[in-house]
Every structure is written in structure tokens, then in C-alpha cells.
Amino acid sequence: METRIYEVFGVAGHYAKDGSDISTWISSRPQNVRPDSSATFRLARKWMETCSNTHSVCSRPEKFMPTRVLDVGVQHMPISVRLVTCSDLQETYSYAALSYVWGSGGRLPRQATTWATFRERPKMKLDFSNLPATLRDAIIVTRCLKIRYLWVDALCIIQDSPEDKTYELAKMPEIYKNAQMTITAALGPTFEAGSLTRPKPSHVDSTTLFKIHGRNLFGRHGTVHLSPIRLGNTFRSSVPVEPTSMRAWTMQEHMLSCRVLIYGSQQLRFVCRSMQRTDGGNIAASLEAPGLIRLKHDKKNGPNSDKPLKAPSLLPWDKLVKEYTKRNLTNPEDKLVAFAGITSEYNKLAPDTYLAGIRRSQLVHELMWRCVAGDRKPRPEYRAPSWSWASVDSPVICSSFHRGDINSTTLRLISAFCEPKIPSLPYGEVSAGALTCEAYTQRASITASGRHFLLRSDSSKVWPVATFDTILEDGALEGTFQNVVCFVVSSTKPN
């Protein structure tokens, strides 16, 4: 038998087509350049129906509808869009919800609902052609999924009414949790970007350099296609970072949903608790599944297996905080509000007292949060007490130590309280908060040089790494500062 060894110069990506014997060994597929095709919509609808009808572990939407939704009509009729009040409907209907990025400017999308337009909306149709591209595409997708109603925050919340916004924010967990499908416009940095016009393949050129025909070690025959990778990009083995991956609000929109259809820059991806599917590209890479409960899947098939094995487990709070604080907010005062839906649902699964994002039962461990080195920012205006991670704008790591590494704690909690700024948003912005604790203290001095700090105790013990929550406006300190008092929360086991 003749054996040929190919040496490929330059940079190349590879893929196999579905149905070939070798496709079980090659995790990449040709990229679908037509996410707006009838075939792609049928595929998306198939994924949704499979999940709805066969996945016992995926949550079932309750009989719930938001205060208002868009009536987008039915698929084979001319597009007609109206804002309707759900209490006026005769029964409860399935609806989709949109998750997207507004844009860094924070300006309202065209035709956003305000008090001036709200009074007229029930009597008139919205001008579909004048809606931002992302909203138009979401309406098309909703109709093709055979869902008649769609919830979009910009159109279903009265944007210049603080009372309506507060009321609807409190319902956010229920809105996304009970949506038949959450449609995520992941590739667009603004609401004008759209989601159905996918950019030209950015990581692998559609041109096939050449094909390799052969068989694997088990005798299965197939063809591997090699394609050039565009300069400046790599053939990713993971899901690309999209604009929605970096926005704070979209984290809870994803986590609270029962199933999500993600229109990304390289592929369409369906994600639920039981499976992940794509329309091409890298099919092995996986996203965090929606929900706060994690299921242990078959190791061979990973997230593409719908046969969970071991008992489900609750996502660690530390992991959620770390991921959330990496993301961006247009309005810094929304730091706790944009996380409130996750906090509310987490509290149902693991009841606790939440003190501006810190759980009272885990106080010792969670007080030891720190800002990521090299990414500390000046402290913003008050929105949470200084001992809470929500008081800073920097990415945060909850603790450098595992709970098993903590040898002892001297901390004794005497009292704790946080006062929500808006009573109907108990996990939102805080107007006041305080901890009263008892613990040993340690006198020390700090030597500062630029952004680097050295902490030395009176007994000459030195901690080579000292981190602070924020930096001064000029970003630097110089000199030695005496008579610093350190509050000793806990000590770690010696190495």
C-alpha cells in the first residue's frame, strides 16, 4: 500500500463535509455564507423544535408574557409590525426575545418607544423599513421560526419613563426565561449592524487549495478540504469573541434564557442546556450553555451530546462575577442592575442574603476579591459600598485562594446591611451599605513606586504583592506611607 505524506507550506485551514466517514474526525465544516436562506431558517426551526419537544432538562416556558410585545405577523404574509399590550390579547402566546448591543453612545434606536410615541403605537403600524437593521433582522428571524410575537427592549419599554423602566427591569428574568427563543445578534457592535448579512469569511477563504482523499486508521474513507487562512486571522479552535460577549447586559440575557439562537460573525449557533449545533465552521467549539445549572455531558460527544450523565451542579458564584466584571457598561450606575437578573435566579437556587453582590454566607471568601493586575481604574461615583466588587469598574477575581487553602479566619461579622436605591429592585444599585466586623489588625507600611506596591508589617514581614481596588486619577503613587492598618480577614495554609 502506498503512503503519501503531504507537507503544506503557508497557512491553511481544513474542513470536511457532513455525511462523509471522515467527518467524525474533522471538527470543521464549510462556512455558511447565507444565514438568511430558507434552508438555514428551516435548520434553526428544527433545532428549536427538537429542544422544545424532546429535551426534558431544558426549561419549559411558563404561561407568561411581558407587558408589551411586537406583533410581527406570520411568515407568508406581508410584514406588518405593531406594538401590543399583552393584557389585551385573548390568551398567552409564545414569543421570542432579542439580545443585542445598542452601541457605546447609548443613543436610542430609531422608532424607540417614548411617552410621545406610546400613545399612538397601539393604533398604528411601525415603519419596518425605518427600523435599525438589527431589529429588522430579528423580526424576519422571528417570523421564519413561526413565532408571532417578539420582545425588544427599545420598543417594548417606554424609554423616557423611569417608572416603566424600573418595572420592566424587575421582570427581566421572567422575560428571558420564558421566551420560546432568545435571538442574539452577536456580530453587530451597534443596533445598525444587522445579523443576517454575515461578513465574508474572515478566518478561512472559501477557495479550496486542494483536496486530500484517503482513509483514517480505522479504514474509513473521506476527503479533507484545505483552504487558505486570511492574513491577520487564525484558524480558531474556539468560538470567536463577538460584541455581545463583551457587553454586561447580554450576559444575563444569555444565562436566563432556555434556548438561544446566536447569529455570529462566522456561524449560526443554537445553544440550549442539552446540545449545541451550528450551520458550519468549527462544530467542536462550545459556548457557555444558558442557565445557572450545569449538566455533565458524555465526554466523547461533549456539548453535542443530549445525554447528561452525572448530577447537575450550580455554577460557582465566583465564576459568574469574574465573567461579568470583564464586560463593558455604557452607564456605570448599572453595575448591579445589569447583574440583578442572575442574582435573583441564583437566590432561588441557593437562598442567601446578598450584600451588593457579596453573599453573606460566603463573606470571608468573597471579601477577598481583587482587581485584575494592570487593569485598575479610578473609583467611580458611589453605587455600592467600597468592600463590594460592584464599587469598581475593573475586572475582578473573587479570591486568589481556594476555600481549602484558607487556614483560619479571625473575622467575626457583627452586622451588615445594604439599602437598595429602588426598593422594587432589591439586587440593583445600592444607596448605602455597611459592614460591622471584628478581627485582628496589623500595622504596616506601604512602599509605592508607580503602580507597584510593597507591604511591610511592623514585625518586618514582607508581602511582595499588595493590590489596591483603584488607582488615583494620576495613576501613580511614590514614596513610603507609614501607619497603615491592615484588617486581617484570614490566613492561608503554609506551603
Automatic annotation (TrEMBL):
- Indicate what this protein is called per its UniProt record: HET-domain-containing protein
Tell me where in this chain the Heterokaryon incompatibility domain is found: 95-253
Q: What is the lineage of its organism?
A: Eukaryota, Fungi, Dikarya, Ascomycota, Pezizomycotina
> InterPro entries, per this entry?
HET
